[in-house]
């Protein structure tokens, strides 16, 4: 069977790319092993200003409206709201970050994303102050991926299979099993490190633990950002996370990380009580050396592509980059230089 694009991996990157390409009339097929991936574990936080230095995401004026529009489009199609807008309180960590916050509040480009506030909320400890972060929220990634999988199956565009690189035939025609795609796009997350064509790219994966919990006491109505985060889901359930471990990449639960996450939470919200851990999940973020995505065409095999490396910001970044990649495939428009893997052709594909 001939298809335009075969996508390997049905995480958030593979799913949203499949939607974008199919919306443009391309015949798409997705292969996935059906197992839990980092996108299903992720909280899906959308946060224009992040990091210790409170840095505004580059190109946010295009990224954020497009992300919101895409999730609204998907909500209309599936009859399910996948994006929840929710304000965020940034609990400042010390004098240095407090001074950085004061500086950001004077910068005009931050005006739509940060506000000063004296509100602390009941039981929240913030001795160095709080910033109100605007235009924040979260993507319900697990619900979205379930809906996308159902949609792909209904179209006959989904294969659940353990993918083996040896099954790809490059010549005389590109093939995978019974499929004859024009292009193959790898959206494998951290598993791309084993990819024989793209595995030498500078991934810097990191293990993260996220806890789903219930509480016997009322929860804040905002997302709390304090190095880790608290994401309220209902009146008495929440998620908290995430740890960051670039050295230990096994998928096993981390009892010590669970203890540390709950201790950090109680240091900020000491009155929270009766916490019960409902689910302890582990994911491996597909982060990269330069903190930019890895997108583009293999220098020797023009039919092979990668769309990966979005790290913890996938909910915000992927819709916009999926459009840019679709433009690249369909119209041969250039990719943004910051994400194009051409920046690594000389150093990671030679020899």
TrEMBL record:
InterPro entries: FAD-dep_OxRdtase, FAD/NAD-bd_sf. Pfam families: DAO. SUPFAM superfamilies: FAD-linked reductases, C-terminal domain (SSF54373), Nucleotide-binding domain (SSF51971). Gene3D superfamilies: D-Amino Acid Oxidase, subunit A, domain 2 (3.30.9.10), FAD/NAD(P)-binding domain (3.50.50.60). Keywords: Cytoplasm, FAD, Flavoprotein, Methyltransferase, Multifunctional enzyme, Oxidoreductase, S-adenosyl-L-methionine, Transferase, tRNA processing. Residues 4-327 form the FAD dependent oxidoreductase domain. The keyword S-adenosyl-L-methionine applies. The keyword Secreted does not apply. This is FAD-binding oxidoreductase. It comes from Methylomonas aurea.
């Amino acid at each position: 069977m001939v298809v335009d694009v075969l996508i390997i991996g049905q995480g958030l990157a593979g799913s949203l790319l499949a939607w974008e390409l199919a919306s443009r009339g391309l015949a798409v097929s997705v292969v996935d092993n059906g197992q839990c991936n980092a996108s299903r574990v992720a909280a899906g936080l959308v946060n224009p200003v992040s990091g210790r230095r409170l840095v505004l995401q580059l190109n946010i004026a295009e990224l954020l409206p497009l992300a919101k529009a895409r999730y609204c489009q998907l909500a209309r199609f599936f009859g399910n709201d996948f994006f929840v807008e929710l304000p965020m309180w940034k609990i400042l960590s010390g004098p240095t970050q407090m001074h950085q916050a004061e500086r950001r509040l004077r910068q005009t480009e931050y005006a739509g994303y940060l506000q000063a506030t004296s509100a602390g909320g009941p039981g929240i400890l913030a001795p160095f102050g709080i910033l109100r972060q605007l235009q924040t929220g979260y993507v319900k990634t697990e619900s979205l991926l379930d809906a996308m999988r159902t949609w792909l199956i209904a179209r006959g565009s989904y294969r659940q299979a353990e993918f083996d690189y040896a099954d790809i035939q490059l010549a005389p025609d590109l093939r995978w099993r019974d499929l004859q795609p024009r292009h193959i796009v790898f959206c494998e997350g951290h598993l791309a490190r084993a990819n024989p064509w793209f595995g030498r790219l500078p991934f810097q994966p990191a293990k993260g633990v996220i806890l789903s919990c219930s509480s016997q006491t009322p929860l804040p109505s905002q997302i709390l950002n304090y190095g880790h985060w608290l994401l309220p889901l209902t009146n008495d359930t929440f998620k908290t996370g995430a740890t960051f471990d670039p050295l230990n990449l096994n998928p096993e639960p981390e009892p010590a990380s669970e203890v540390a996450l709950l201790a950090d939470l109680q240091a900020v919200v000491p009155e929270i009580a009766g916490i019960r851990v409902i689910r302890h999940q582990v994911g491996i973020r597909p982060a990269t050396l330069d903190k930019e995505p890895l997108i583009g065409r293999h220098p020797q095999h023009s039919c092979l592509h990668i769309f990966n490396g979005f790290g913890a910001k996938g909910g915000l970044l992927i819709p916009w980059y999926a459009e840019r990649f679709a433009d690249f495939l369909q119209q041969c428009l250039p990719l943004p230089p910051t994400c194009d893997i051409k920046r690594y052709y000389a150093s990671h594909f030679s020899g």
